[in-house]
Amino acid sequence: MKAGPEAALYAHYAARLRPPPEVTEIPEARGSAAEVRRREAAGLLATLPEDAVAIALDLGGEAPDSEAFARLIARAEEAGKQPFFLIGGAEGLDPSVTTRARHVIALGPMTWPHFLVRGMLAEQLYRAQAIRAGHPYHRAWRP
Ligand SMILES: C[S@@+](CC[C@H](N)C(=O)[O-])C[C@H]1O[C@@H](n2cnc3c(N)ncnc32)[C@H](O)[C@@H]1O
């Protein structure tokens, strides 16, 4: 990701996460949309350890609220696993990625650019951390 507002957004929240997140970027593939998805999927899946808890970010996924997202992360970590989040490129994620993922999550029904999704995900991870710590960053008040 080039320096710019999206990188700054991600860095702002990533700096607050414990343990600090690691990012692996897959080179943008070329070809038809389906080829791009397949090639990028091969790159994404190759980054995953065999027993990884993979969580795909995809418009076709479920949209948990922040508390449910925090519980999902907590379950993975309590099982001794750091979750791996998979974000697609401009053509989206190949079905082989969403099939491999243990959870497929949508950040609502609107389509966002993947660089923004990285920052939005980091914010939700920080919120999940705050929820689990009882930190007032997350001001839950709705019944
Ligand atoms: C520009 S979007 C790809 C759009 C593609 N046409 C599709 O339908 O997936 C790039 C990536 O950002 C992520 N993304 C974008 N909007 C999202 C949303 N509302 N919820 C979850 N992930 C999203 C997904 O990982 C997606 O593959």
TrEMBL record:
Enzyme Commission number(s) from the entry: 2.1.1.177
InterPro entries: Alpha/beta_knot_MTases, RlmH-like, tRNA_m1G_MTases_N
Positions annotated to bind S-adenosyl-L-methionine: L57, G88, L107, G108, P109, M110, T111, W112
CDD domains, per database record: RlmH-like
Subcellular location: Cytoplasm
Reactions the enzyme catalyzes: pseudouridine(1915) in 23S rRNA + S-adenosyl-L-methionine = N(3)-methylpseudouridine(1915) in 23S rRNA + S-adenosyl-L-homocysteine + H(+)
Pfam families per the UniProt record, alphabetical: SPOUT_MTase (PF02590)
The UniProt record lists the keyword Cytoplasm: yes
Key words, A-Z: Cytoplasm, Methyltransferase, rRNA processing, S-adenosyl-L-methionine, Transferase
Family stated for the protein in its record: Belongs to the RNA methyltransferase RlmH family.
HAMAP family noted in UniProt: 23SrRNA_methyltr_H
Subunit structure: Homodimer.
Function summary: Specifically methylates the pseudouridine at position 1915 (m3Psi1915) in 23S rRNA.
Protein's name in the database: Ribosomal RNA large subunit methyltransferase H
Organism: Roseomonas nitratireducens
Organism lineage string: Bacteria, Pseudomonadati, Pseudomonadota, Alphaproteobacteria, Acetobacterales
